[in-house]
Structures are given as C-alpha cells and as structure tokens.
Amino acid sequence: MSFQILGTGRYVPEHVVTNDDLAKLVDTSDEWITTRTGIKTRHIATDETASQMAAEAARDALARSGVRAEELDLILCATVSGDYIVPGLACLVQREIGASCPAFDLNAACSAFLFLLETAAAYISTGRYDKVLVIGAEQMSRVVDWTDRSTCILFGDGAGAMVLGKGDNYLGSHLTVRGGDEVLRMDTLPGISPFYTGPKSHPYVQMNGSETYKFATRAVPGEIGALLEQCGVEQSQVDWVICHQANRRIIEAAARRLKGIPSEKFLMNIQEYGNTSAASIPLLVDECCRKGLFHEGDLIVMAAFGGGLSSTACLVRW
Ligand code: COA
Predict the structure, then answer these.
(1) Is residue 249 within 8 Å of residue 220, measured between CB atoms?
(2) What kind and span of H or E run contains 62?
(3) Per-residue pLDDT reduced to its tens digit, 96-138
(4) Is there an atom of ligand 1 within 6 Å of 207 CB?
(5) Model confidence pTM above 0.85
C-alpha cells in the first residue's frame, strides 16, 4: 500500500517583485536574471509568515480533497525558513487548521517535499495512518542575504500542500544524499555564548552557484533514469515531469539528457515564482491540477535536488 493524492492546495503572497525591482537593490539586471535562470518575478511575503502560508495552503488542499481537518491522522511539513526552530511549522499548522493529530517537520532543503512523500508513504503503509497532510512552505525572503546578488535573485516565498489517503498511486522512489556543507548551506543562529570561540555563523543562504548547477544538471537526469529503471518504466511512457523549480537552464539540461522524454513534458512555473525551495513541487503540481493538465492514469515523475547535497525522484500515477 502507498497513497493516492486526494487534493492539492496553495498560497502565494500577493506582492510580486520583478527583476527590475531587484536591480534597484543590487547590481543586476532583468536581462542577466532572465537569461541565467528563467526567472522574471517572485512572490515575496510582506506580512505573511511561513506558518500562515502553510495553513492557507493546507485549508485549500483540505477543501479541494473534501477532507476535514479532524479526519487527519498526521501532518508533515518541510521548510528551511519556518517561523521558529521550536515549535515546528507542522505544530503551528495543526493548531491553525483545528486538527488534533501528530505533526512534525522534516528538513531536506529543496528536496524536502519528495522526502515528505516518501515519509508519508511509509506511515500510510503501516496501516495506522490513513489521511496525511503534507506541506512545503517557505519564507525564503527571510533567509536570503538581500545584499548578495548571486542568491537573492533566485528565491521566492509560498506554500503548497497535498492531502494523501490510502491508495496505490505512489509507484516508486529513488533518493540519494551526498553529505556535505561545502556547496550549499544555511547556518543557524550565531549564538551569544561567552564560552564559544569556534567559527562564526552567517545565518543566510550561502551557495556556490556553479557547483550547485553542475551537481543538479547531472543529478536530476541520473535520479530520474535510476527511478524509471527500478520501476520498469520506459522514458516514453512518462506523461509529465515536475522538477524542482530552481533554474530553467537546469531543467532544460536535464531534459536534453533524458532523450526519451519530450522536452515539453517538463513543466515549469519558475518564471513567475522563482525557487520556493520545499514549496516548489507542490505549487507546480497544484497549478497543473487547476489547469486540468493531469488525467487519470497519467504517469508523473517528480524530481528534486538541493542542499545536503540530495537528489530525489518519485513516480506517481495520477
Ligand atoms: N546579476 C549580475 N551578475 C551576477 C549576478 C547577478 N544577479 N550574480 C552573479 N553575477 C556575476 C558573478 O559575479 C560573475 O561575475 P564575474 O565573472 O565577474 O566573477 C558572473 O555573474 C558569472 O557568475 P556565474 O556564477 O558563473 O554565473 P552562472 O552562469 O553560473 O549563473 C547561477 C549563476 C546562480 C544563476 C547559476 O550558477 C545557478 O543557477 N546555479 C544553481 C543555483 C541553484 O539551483 N540553487 C538552488 C539549489 S536548490
């Protein structure tokens, strides 16, 4: 037993920041950002917090799946930019939507939503959990350094959610972690201990862009290839690919390597939202659902990569 997706939901802040807006803050241009990343705008929180965005996305997903908050058996959240370290985002959402089930967070950076799906599948497989709410929610604008032009142009805020129930539509997954903090990291608080003399922390996103790019362009097709082989599915059978939306060029490079999947099957909304980290995959899935793009029986590959370094892919039958 695995799961089926009963409904999806979303929240994105109203405030839209364009590349031209960013050019007033740092030394960049619409032309540079568009050609290097494909991003034109991002939605940025003005008074919303990650937990409010997560709760709105959760309410939306519950309404669209016809499930009441009281029926939930588990809430799982993924974030690197939650309101607090303690309590976790899932606990805040639980109270906000009026649920009473267990709730906890998971951190796997931009790959986290697929780790959530894997975790939910494992819980549902025990037979003790039926309805599981999974949410990726990020207020990345809180954790980027707005003076660093190489990172602040990339990220956006938002939340995406899914309500999962017992079913057989999660067909397989492939998850890889190459542990290390050299390429991509975000430190915790600097601390004020009078006894500590070790390295100082810088609690904002720090990234070696070109190393991340090289990693992603190899890892995404590698992960999808391994997943399909493991599931005995040909590339030509795949109906849609939902990749983590970090950079249009990364997705296009992955598509070029996966020659059996036509490039138009790689769906994108990065131009509007930028990289919303753990929220990017559920936001895109929700958008495609609303457009009526997915049909019953469609084979959908989801693939992500991020800090860890991690890379993941899973196969879902719609
Ligand atoms: N505007 C203008 N110039 C910028 C800039 C910006 N916003 N950011 C960096 N530059 C400059 C650099 O300073 C560098 O200048 P230099 O040659 O004088 O030193 C030049 O542009 C080229 O930088 P480079 O890093 O080689 O560009 P790139 O083509 O690799 O693109 C990224 C940079 C960040 C867009 C790209 O590496 C990338 O997308 N990496 C992956 C990031 C990612 O996916 N992160 C999330 C992981 S989940």
Answers:
(1) no
(2) helix 50-65
(3) 999 999 999 999 999 999 999 999 999 999 999 999 999 999 9
(4) yes
(5) yes
